[in-house]
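User: Sequence recovery, please. Input:
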Protein backbone atom coordinates (compact mmCIF):
# COMPACT_ATOMS: atom_id res chain seq x y z
CA UNK A 1 0.00 0.00 0.00
CA UNK A 2 2.82 2.41 0.92
CA UNK A 3 6.54 2.34 0.26
CA UNK A 4 9.04 4.60 1.97
CA UNK A 5 12.27 4.66 0.01
CA UNK A 6 15.51 5.89 1.64
CA UNK A 7 13.67 8.55 3.60
CA UNK A 8 15.75 11.04 5.61
CA UNK A 9 14.66 14.01 7.70
CA UNK A 10 16.99 16.60 9.20
CA UNK A 11 15.45 19.52 11.09
CA UNK A 12 16.57 23.16 10.87
CA UNK A 13 18.31 22.82 14.27
CA UNK A 14 20.62 20.17 12.78
CA UNK A 15 18.94 17.15 14.40
CA UNK A 16 18.98 14.23 11.99
CA UNK A 17 15.75 12.54 13.04
CA UNK A 18 15.67 9.86 10.32
CA UNK A 19 18.32 8.44 8.00
CA UNK A 20 17.72 6.20 5.00
CA UNK A 21 14.50 4.63 6.22
CA UNK A 22 13.00 2.17 3.78
CA UNK A 23 9.77 0.42 4.66
CA UNK A 24 6.89 -1.24 2.81
CA UNK A 25 3.53 -1.27 4.56
CA UNK A 26 0.92 -3.71 3.26
CA UNK A 27 -2.80 -2.94 3.29
CA UNK A 28 -4.52 -4.39 6.34
CA UNK A 29 -1.33 -4.87 8.36
CA UNK A 30 -0.84 -3.81 11.98
CA UNK A 31 2.68 -2.38 12.19
CA UNK A 32 4.33 -1.13 15.39
CA UNK A 33 7.15 1.41 15.18
CA UNK A 34 9.11 0.63 18.33
CA UNK A 35 12.14 2.38 19.78
CA UNK A 36 13.37 4.67 22.56
CA UNK A 37 12.14 8.25 22.90
CA UNK A 38 13.71 10.53 20.33
CA UNK A 39 14.45 7.83 17.74
CA UNK A 40 12.21 9.43 15.14
CA UNK A 41 9.00 7.40 15.44
CA UNK A 42 6.69 10.43 15.50
CA UNK A 43 8.66 12.05 12.70
CA UNK A 44 8.12 8.92 10.60
CA UNK A 45 4.40 8.88 11.40
CA UNK A 46 4.08 12.58 10.50
CA UNK A 47 5.77 11.90 7.16
CA UNK A 48 3.32 9.07 6.46
CA UNK A 49 0.44 11.39 7.42
CA UNK A 50 1.70 14.05 4.99
CA UNK A 51 2.13 16.52 7.87
CA UNK A 52 5.83 16.82 7.04
CA UNK A 53 8.02 16.07 4.02
CA UNK A 54 11.38 14.25 3.82
CA UNK A 55 14.62 16.02 2.88
CA UNK A 56 15.73 13.01 0.89
CA UNK A 57 13.96 9.90 -0.33
CA UNK A 58 10.32 9.45 -1.17
CA UNK A 59 6.97 8.01 -0.14
CA UNK A 60 4.92 6.18 -2.74
CA UNK A 61 1.25 5.28 -2.19
CA UNK A 62 0.26 2.48 -4.55
CA UNK A 63 -3.19 3.96 -5.24
CA UNK A 64 -2.09 7.60 -5.24
CA UNK A 65 -2.07 10.12 -2.41
CA UNK A 66 -4.74 9.43 0.23
CA UNK A 67 -7.95 11.44 -0.14
CA UNK A 68 -9.28 13.48 2.83
CA UNK A 69 -10.65 11.15 5.48
CA UNK A 70 -8.64 8.15 4.32
CA UNK A 71 -6.03 8.68 7.03
CA UNK A 72 -7.00 8.80 10.71
CA UNK A 73 -4.53 10.18 13.28
CA UNK A 74 -4.67 9.54 17.03
CA UNK A 75 -2.34 11.44 19.36
CA UNK A 76 -1.03 10.60 22.83
CA UNK A 77 -3.41 13.19 24.31
CA UNK A 78 -7.08 12.80 23.50
CA UNK A 79 -7.13 16.52 22.47
CA UNK A 80 -10.91 16.87 22.80
CA UNK A 81 -12.82 20.15 22.80
CA UNK A 82 -13.59 20.51 26.53
CA UNK A 83 -16.90 22.33 26.06
CA UNK A 84 -18.28 19.86 23.50
CA UNK A 85 -19.99 16.51 24.14
CA UNK A 86 -18.43 13.19 23.10
CA UNK A 87 -20.74 13.10 20.05
CA UNK A 88 -19.86 16.67 19.05
CA UNK A 89 -16.16 15.88 19.36
CA UNK A 90 -16.56 12.81 17.14
CA UNK A 91 -18.63 14.85 14.65
CA UNK A 92 -15.89 17.52 14.32
CA UNK A 93 -13.87 16.07 11.37
CA UNK A 94 -17.08 15.56 9.40
CA UNK A 95 -18.31 19.07 10.27
CA UNK A 96 -14.98 20.49 9.07
CA UNK A 97 -15.61 18.74 5.76
CA UNK A 98 -19.00 20.45 5.49
CA UNK A 99 -21.13 17.41 6.33
CA UNK A 100 -24.42 18.26 8.09
CA UNK A 101 -25.34 16.72 11.45
CA UNK A 102 -28.46 15.14 9.94
CA UNK A 103 -26.23 13.20 7.57
CA UNK A 104 -23.52 12.47 10.15
CA UNK A 105 -25.60 11.44 13.19
CA UNK A 106 -25.72 7.72 12.38
CA UNK A 107 -22.01 7.62 11.61
CA UNK A 108 -21.17 9.40 14.87
CA UNK A 109 -23.34 6.93 16.81
CA UNK A 110 -21.70 4.00 15.02
CA UNK A 111 -18.19 5.30 15.78
CA UNK A 112 -19.05 5.74 19.47
CA UNK A 113 -20.49 2.21 19.50
CA UNK A 114 -17.29 0.84 17.93
CA UNK A 115 -15.27 2.12 20.90
CA UNK A 116 -17.85 0.96 23.46
CA UNK A 117 -19.22 4.41 24.34
CA UNK A 118 -22.80 4.22 23.08
CA UNK A 119 -24.20 5.44 26.39
CA UNK A 120 -21.90 8.46 26.61
CA UNK A 121 -22.76 10.52 23.54
CA UNK A 122 -23.81 13.53 25.62
CA UNK A 123 -21.02 13.37 28.20
CA UNK A 124 -18.45 16.19 28.28
CA UNK A 125 -14.73 15.26 28.42
CA UNK A 126 -14.44 16.20 32.13
CA UNK A 127 -17.17 13.62 32.91
CA UNK A 128 -15.11 10.83 31.28
CA UNK A 129 -12.09 8.87 32.54
CA UNK A 130 -8.74 9.08 30.73
CA UNK A 131 -9.42 5.77 28.98
CA UNK A 132 -12.89 6.92 27.87
CA UNK A 133 -11.47 10.20 26.55
CA UNK A 134 -9.00 8.20 24.47
CA UNK A 135 -11.91 6.07 23.20
CA UNK A 136 -13.64 9.28 22.05
CA UNK A 137 -10.42 10.31 20.33
CA UNK A 138 -10.28 6.94 18.50
CA UNK A 139 -13.97 7.26 17.55
CA UNK A 140 -13.21 10.73 16.13
CA UNK A 141 -10.53 9.13 13.94
CA UNK A 142 -12.83 6.25 12.91
CA UNK A 143 -15.82 8.41 11.98
CA UNK A 144 -14.24 9.28 8.62
CA UNK A 145 -13.93 5.52 7.95
CA UNK A 146 -10.17 5.76 7.34
CA UNK A 147 -8.30 3.03 5.48
CA UNK A 148 -5.21 3.81 7.52
CA UNK A 149 -5.09 4.59 11.23
CA UNK A 150 -1.92 6.31 12.44
CA UNK A 151 -1.55 6.15 16.23
CA UNK A 152 1.17 8.01 18.15
CA UNK A 153 1.57 6.45 21.62
CA UNK A 154 -2.18 6.69 22.21
CA UNK A 155 -2.15 4.66 25.44
CA UNK A 156 1.10 5.96 26.98
CA UNK A 157 -0.62 8.17 29.56
CA UNK A 158 -3.08 5.49 30.77
CA UNK A 159 -2.75 3.20 33.78
CA UNK A 160 -1.76 -0.40 33.07
CA UNK A 161 -5.26 -1.88 33.57
CA UNK A 162 -6.98 0.64 31.30
CA UNK A 163 -4.17 0.29 28.81
CA UNK A 164 -4.57 -3.49 28.59
CA UNK A 165 -8.32 -3.15 27.99
CA UNK A 166 -7.86 -0.53 25.28
CA UNK A 167 -5.18 -2.64 23.59
CA UNK A 168 -7.52 -5.65 23.56
CA UNK A 169 -10.41 -3.57 22.19
CA UNK A 170 -8.19 -1.96 19.54
CA UNK A 171 -7.04 -5.36 18.33
CA UNK A 172 -10.65 -6.57 18.08
CA UNK A 173 -11.60 -3.37 16.24
CA UNK A 174 -8.71 -3.74 13.79
CA UNK A 175 -9.80 -7.30 12.98
CA UNK A 176 -13.40 -6.17 12.53
CA UNK A 177 -12.61 -3.13 10.35
CA UNK A 178 -9.74 -4.55 8.28
CA UNK A 179 -7.96 -1.20 8.14
CA UNK A 180 -4.19 -0.69 8.26
CA UNK A 181 -2.72 0.48 11.57
CA UNK A 182 0.69 2.06 12.11
CA UNK A 183 1.19 2.31 15.85
CA UNK A 184 4.05 4.22 17.50
CA UNK A 185 5.11 3.00 20.93
CA UNK A 186 8.15 2.81 23.18
CA UNK A 187 6.68 -0.18 25.04
CA UNK A 188 7.96 -3.49 23.73
CA UNK A 189 5.16 -5.30 25.62
CA UNK A 190 2.58 -3.18 23.86
CA UNK A 191 4.20 -3.75 20.46
CA UNK A 192 4.46 -7.51 21.09
CA UNK A 193 0.81 -7.79 22.13
CA UNK A 194 -0.69 -5.65 19.36
CA UNK A 195 1.33 -5.74 16.19
CA UNK A 196 1.61 -8.34 13.48
CA UNK A 197 4.90 -6.77 12.52
CA UNK A 198 7.34 -4.90 14.75
CA UNK A 199 9.73 -2.40 13.21
CA UNK A 200 12.58 -1.69 15.63
CA UNK A 201 14.29 1.67 15.41
CA UNK A 202 17.59 2.95 16.78
CA UNK A 203 18.11 6.60 17.72
CA UNK A 204 19.99 9.60 16.31
CA UNK A 205 19.61 9.32 13.48
CA UNK A 206 16.56 7.07 13.48
CA UNK A 207 17.14 3.95 11.46
CA UNK A 208 15.30 0.67 11.12
CA UNK A 209 17.42 -2.02 12.76
CA UNK A 210 15.01 -4.97 12.71
CA UNK A 211 11.71 -5.98 11.25
CA UNK A 212 10.05 -8.82 13.14
CA UNK A 213 6.92 -10.75 12.12
CA UNK A 214 4.66 -11.79 15.00
CA UNK A 215 2.94 -15.14 15.44
CA UNK A 216 1.36 -14.14 18.75
CA UNK A 217 -2.32 -15.22 18.86
CA UNK A 218 -5.12 -12.68 19.23
CA UNK A 219 -6.99 -11.87 22.41
CA UNK A 220 -6.35 -11.10 26.06
CA UNK A 221 -5.00 -14.63 26.69
CA UNK A 222 -2.10 -13.91 24.34
CA UNK A 223 -0.31 -12.16 27.23
CA UNK A 224 0.11 -15.61 28.82
CA UNK A 225 1.04 -17.37 25.59
CA UNK A 226 4.59 -18.73 25.13
CA UNK A 227 4.72 -17.06 21.69
CA UNK A 228 4.21 -13.66 23.37
CA UNK A 229 6.98 -14.37 25.91
CA UNK A 230 9.29 -15.51 23.11
CA UNK A 231 8.59 -12.37 21.08
CA UNK A 232 9.27 -10.10 24.08
CA UNK A 233 12.57 -11.94 24.61
CA UNK A 234 13.45 -11.66 20.92
CA UNK A 235 12.76 -7.90 20.86
CA UNK A 236 14.74 -7.43 24.09
CA UNK A 237 17.75 -9.21 22.55
CA UNK A 238 17.58 -7.03 19.44
CA UNK A 239 17.26 -3.85 21.51
CA UNK A 240 20.29 -4.81 23.60
CA UNK A 241 22.33 -5.58 20.51
CA UNK A 242 21.36 -2.22 18.98
CA UNK A 243 22.15 -0.19 22.16
P1 LIG B 1 10.11 9.82 18.98
O1 LIG B 1 8.71 9.92 18.45
O2 LIG B 1 10.78 8.52 18.65
O3 LIG B 1 10.19 10.12 20.45
P2 LIG B 1 10.58 12.21 17.42
O4 LIG B 1 10.27 11.81 16.02
O5 LIG B 1 9.55 13.01 18.14
O6 LIG B 1 11.02 10.93 18.25
O7 LIG B 1 11.93 13.09 17.42
C1 LIG B 1 13.15 12.61 16.83
C2 LIG B 1 14.22 13.67 17.06
O8 LIG B 1 13.91 14.82 16.27
C3 LIG B 1 14.33 14.15 18.50
O9 LIG B 1 15.68 14.42 18.79
C4 LIG B 1 13.51 15.43 18.50
O10 LIG B 1 13.99 16.32 19.49
C5 LIG B 1 13.77 15.96 17.11
N1 LIG B 1 12.66 16.76 16.57
C6 LIG B 1 11.39 16.34 16.38
N2 LIG B 1 10.64 17.30 15.79
C7 LIG B 1 11.47 18.38 15.63
C8 LIG B 1 11.31 19.69 15.09
N3 LIG B 1 10.14 20.07 14.57
N4 LIG B 1 12.38 20.51 15.09
C9 LIG B 1 13.58 20.09 15.56
N5 LIG B 1 13.81 18.87 16.08
C10 LIG B 1 12.77 18.02 16.13
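Assistant: Recovered sequence (243 residues):
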Amino acid sequence: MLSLIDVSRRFANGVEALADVSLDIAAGDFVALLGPSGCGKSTLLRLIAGLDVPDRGSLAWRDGLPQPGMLGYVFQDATLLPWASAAENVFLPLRLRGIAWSEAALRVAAALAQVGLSGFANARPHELSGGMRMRVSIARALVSRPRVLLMDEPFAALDEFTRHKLQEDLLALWRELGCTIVFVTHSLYEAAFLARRIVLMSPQPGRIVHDIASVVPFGAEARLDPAYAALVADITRHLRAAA
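The chain has two domains: 2-70+147-242, 81-145.
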